[in-house]
Amino acid sequence: MRHQQELPSHYELRRRGTSQGGGLTLGVVVTALTIGGVLVLLAVTFVSDWLHTPGLTLSTTSLFLSPNGDRDHDSTTVTYNLSEEANVTVQIFSESGGLVRTLVTDRRQAAGQHFAVWDGLNDLNQPVADGRYRLQVTAKGPVRATSQGVSLQVDTQPPTLRLANLPDGLRIGNPSLTVQGLTDPDATVWVAGNPQPIAVDGRGGFTFQHRLTEGDNLLEVSAVDQAGNSTRLARKITLVTTPPDVVIATPQDDEWTNQALVTVSGQAPPGTTLTVNDQPVTLDDDGRFQYEWLLEEGDNLIRITATDDVGNVTSQERLVHLKTSRPLLELFVEEGATFGDPVLQLTGRTDPGATVMVNGQVVPVSALGDFQVTLNLFQGDNLIQAEARDQAGNVTTLTRRVQYALSPPTRGLERLARNLSDLPSLTLPLLAALPLILLLTFYRLRPVSLVLSVDRRSFTPGVPGEGKVLILSLDLSKPARTTLEVLDQYGRPLATILHNRRRSAGEHHFFWDGYDDYGRPAPPGEYVIQAVAGTPAANVTSAVQVTIQEDALVHGRGRRRVGDGGEIIDGRGDFIRRRPNRR
Predict the structure, then answer these.
(1) Which helix or strand (DSSP H or E) is residue 33 part of?
(2) Domain that holds residue 91
(3) SS3 37
(4) CATH number of the domain bearing residue 184
(5) What is the pTM of this model?
(6) Residue 139 CA from chain centroid, whole number
(7) CA distance 96 to 399
(8) Considering the domain boundaries, does residue 30 fall inside one?
C-alpha cells in the first residue's frame, strides 16, 4: 500500500507528462499568432500609407485677369492647402487642353497653405490670347496623386461704352440732363463725382440724371469690366439759361413819326434767331440787324423776339405812333384887327402835346392844347407868325397882321360936346341917363385885382383816396374869367385846375392833389401855381411857388383810374377833370 502510494503508477506518469507538453505547445501558438498579427498590421499600415492620396483644396483672388500692364487685374493668385507633404505641380491649360504654362514642377511641399501667381504669360514669356484657361494644381503622394483646378478668364479688351445723343460741346438750356448709354452687360458704369455705380440692365443699357451748373460742365463716364479693363468718355456740356441780350437802336419806345416806313435796327448775339412781329430777320456775322416795317396811322406795337440755340427767349416791344396830318393851330385874333393898346394878350389852340412858337418865342401849351402869349405891338402894322409842331414833326403855320394905332387924347367935356353935336336929336331922357351909363362903363372897365395863396409851400402827394390835397385860395375883386394852372420848371402846364371859367367876386377855394392831367404823380421839384383873371380891360396874373416832395408809396403804387368817358377820377370817386384826348 505504501509502495503504491510512494511510487506513481504508469497512468499517473503518463497523465502528468501529457499535461506539461500541452501547456508548452499553446504558448508557442499564442506567441506565433501575436507576431503574425503585428506583422500583418505593419504590412497593412505600410501598404495603406504607401497607397494614400494627399488632401488638396483651392481658392483664387479673381477669376478674371487682363495682362495689359495697367496694374489692374494684371495677374491672379491661386491659394491651395495640402493636408500632408506632397510633390506639387501647378500648370495652366488652354480651353482645348493644351499646356500653356507650368508654374510649379513636382516641388516637394509640406502640409499647409501655399500659393501660385499667374501673370497671363505662357512658357515663352508671351501674353496669352484672350479666352478661358484652367489653372490646375496636382499633389502627388508615394503612389497616388490628386488634382484640383479653377477656370480663369483672360480678357484684355476694354468694354463697349456709348452715350446716346450727347455729342461733345453740346449746349442746352435745362440744368437737368438725362444721360442714356450702352455698355457690356457685365460692366460697371461710374460717373465722376458720384460714389455710387450706375445700374446696368441685362442688355447693357443704363440711364442716369446729371445736374448741370451755369457755364461749361465736364461730364466723365467710365465703364469697367470684371477683368479691370475700362473705357472712359468725357463730354463738355455748356448750360445757358440767360436769355440772349438784344440791344434795340431804333426805334425808341413811344416814338412819334410822320414817316410810314420805320427801320428796326440793333444787335443780338451771333447765331440768334430773330423775328420782328413774327417775321424772320437776318443777322450779319457780328449779330447786327436792320429791318424795315410799314406803319399804320396811329399806334403801332413792334415786338422784337430773339431765341438762342438752346431755346432761351428775349422779347422787347417798341410803341411807335404814326401821325401824318398837320396839327391844329388857331389864333383867336382876326386878320387886320386894330388895337389901341400896345400890349396884346394873344390866345390860341393846338393839339395837346404840340409845341407852339409865336414870333420865335416858345409858348407854353396846356394839357388841353390852349395857349396864350403877351405880345408888344409897335405903332402901325404888326406881323404875327405862329408855328405849331406836333410830336411827329408835322408843322402848321399861321400869320396874322394887326394894327396898333394911337388916338390923340381928348378931354371929357370936348368929347361929350362933339358927341352932342353929332347927335342933334338926343333927347332929354338920354341926357338924364348919361351919368348912370358912365358909372356902369367905369365899373365894367375897372381892372380886376387877383390874389392867389396856398395853405403851405411844401406838399407831398398821397395815394389816391388818401385825401391829401393842397388848398388854393383865390380872391377876386370882381367877376372875371379865370384860369388856374400848375406850371413845371420850364413854364409848361402840368395840371389844369380851372380853365377859362367865370368866377364871381370874392374868395374861392380849390384843391390840387399833386397829380398831373394824366393821373401821374408830379415828380419832386419846384412848381409854380399861376392864376390868370381876364376882363375886357386887361388880364392880371398872380402866382405862388410850391415844392413837391417825394413819397415812395405814391411813386411806387399810386395811380388814379380813368373813367370810360376819359374823365380822371380820384380815389374818393370825385370828378376832377376830363382827360384830354391825344391825337
Answers:
(1) helix 10-51
(2) 56-154
(3) helix
(4) 2.60.40.10
(5) 0.50
(6) 75
(7) 120
(8) no
